Amino acid sequence: MNPLPKHLEELFFSRSNTKLSFRKAEMKDAAWLLSLRNDPETRKQSISPEEIAPDKHHQWLKNTLNNPSRLLLIASMANEDLASFRLDQRPDGSIELSWTVAPKFRGKGIGSLLLTTVGAILPKQLELCACVLQGNPASLKLAQKAGLSLHRKEGKLIWLKREPSPFSNDA
Fold first, then answer.
1. Where are the beta strands (DSSP E) in the chain?
2. Is the pLDDT of residue 95 over 50?
3. Which residues lie across from 159 on neighbouring strands?
4. Which residue segment(s) compose the domain that 79 sits in?
5. For the chain, what is the domain count?
């Protein structure tokens, strides 16, 4: 699989006109990320709903941080971490989006702000996709905030996609 284009990472760190700030996840974020992943509501809406053991999560995070085809970000506001956000380069060249809003910030517009911001940051020439469970209307709505629309259904999964725009001038 190809690595993510390096300029994508830079786009998230060069934005000063947004309420959200982004930083790369680090190993020091492991406990916080695991608490997001193992939150009961997160697990209920996850494609893989099982609880993850700390050692398994630690290895996943280590592999993720060393994977050139993946970028794991932490979104924050006023120095408080609000959500995790992941970009994965897929074999077909598209970029898959994945996110989790921290439990105490759910229902407060953070997910909407996150996905609207991400949709604006990522160049329109990129093909984006996301996969959500059919029983997860909140994530479906958030994906649409990033400009994704229904692409296909596979059993309990809904794939959304934003087609690349050849007419955009953004980088």
1. 21-24, 70-77, 80-89, 95-101, 128-133, 149-154, 157-162
2. yes
3. 131, 152
4. 6-123
5. 1
pLDDT of residue 170 exceeding 70: no
- Say if residue 165 is exposed, middle or buried (CB neighbours under 10 Å; 0-12, 13-18, 19+): middle
Does residue 141 lie in a domain region? no
Give the pLDDT of residue 4: 80
Model confidence band, residue 17 (pLDDT cutoffs 50, 70, 90): low
Which of 117-137 are b and which e, b meaning 16 or more Cβ less than 10 Å from the residue's Cβ?
A: bbbebbbbebebbbbbbeebe
**The amino acid at 83:** A
Q: Can you give the pLDDT at residue 171?
A: 47
Q: What confidence score (pLDDT) does residue 9 get? A: 76
Q: Looking at residue 87, which CATH number applies to its domain? A: 3.40.630.30
In a domain, 57, yes or no: yes
